[in-house]
């Protein structure tokens, strides 16, 4: 059963109730309001009897005639007959303390009534804003921002592409499944995937919000943007994080579709930080990149840090791990790097022992073809931003079957 381009979640033979764009406070008001609405048809399979309704955590007023009339005035669609197999109640702007439009969707195993929705640029800007607004909501995560790990999620979801077989890439979001989600290169990215989950939708037990007079313990899906695929969500989050961390504009376009576990890519398609330039060329040439693009993409290491419980390496590359600049290149060239003496994997340290570089970073200034690009980007931040934006767009779009004449869009940063 599918709704909203495959976003509807349903259990076998059970109806699913969905709420769109529903803040928690509004949900409380909605719980009271629903008691005043005419009963909705929530058809269930005869083979699966209803469980007893659980008590609601807050009292409800009696369904007086005036209350029923007031609630009915909020409906933009006349109620369906009681015997119908699915029911849709849409409550508009004034409902639930001024919340924007949201809806209930009830579905039986035999039929469904989808609500057609075609997202616009404004809708994607709302997704962007939602992500941007949450980047720094947890001060105790890493350096105070989820931005770097979101860039890494988008990067690793896209960097599995193989141009010879046209497999992998951002189209599919197969990191949701094992074994791909458990690959060593993806260690720690569950933090990023979990961070984005409430943006798409969250499953909650029905009694948390309301206890209808009939038996109904089906889950409610609190879905802010259920129509966006995980594949689009992850890459949009990467573009958002780069821009919000003062990086360049990253043009982006939708069109990716989620795939099942069978489409998971084999391990070994992502770069290994412990390797040298030959390995980097093997990995990036497979995707269709050249030496200049390899060096430009490496500039993303200006963001974030390594963790011993993920990659095994430890420490940040720069002194400002939540701001994108060309510092990665200037530090790589100008600092005196030495091998760190510790029990972990081989990595380099600066003289303060506060920064680190991986062997895959250091090889960029050892390789005769790559070092000139490191020097160019170290001297010119604008050139780095221009090339970085272009190569990130290319990375995020590898293998995606976009519709003909689909256009890229740009988003306004919230910190602009």
TrEMBL record:
The keyword Iron applies. This is Peroxidase. Keywords: Heme, Iron, Metal-binding, Mitochondrion, Oxidoreductase, Peroxidase, Transit peptide. Residues 228-407 form the Plant heme peroxidase family profile domain. Forms a one-to-one complex with cytochrome c. The lineage of its organism: Eukaryota, Fungi, Dikarya, Ascomycota, Pezizomycotina. Its EC number is 1.11.1.-. It is found in: Mitochondrion intermembrane space; Mitochondrion matrix. Belongs to the peroxidase family. Cytochrome c peroxidase subfamily. It catalyses: 2 Fe(II)-[cytochrome c] + H2O2 + 2 H(+) = 2 Fe(III)-[cytochrome c] + 2 H2O. Its main location: mitochondrion. Destroys radicals which are normally produced within the cells and which are toxic to biological systems. It comes from Apiospora phragmitis.
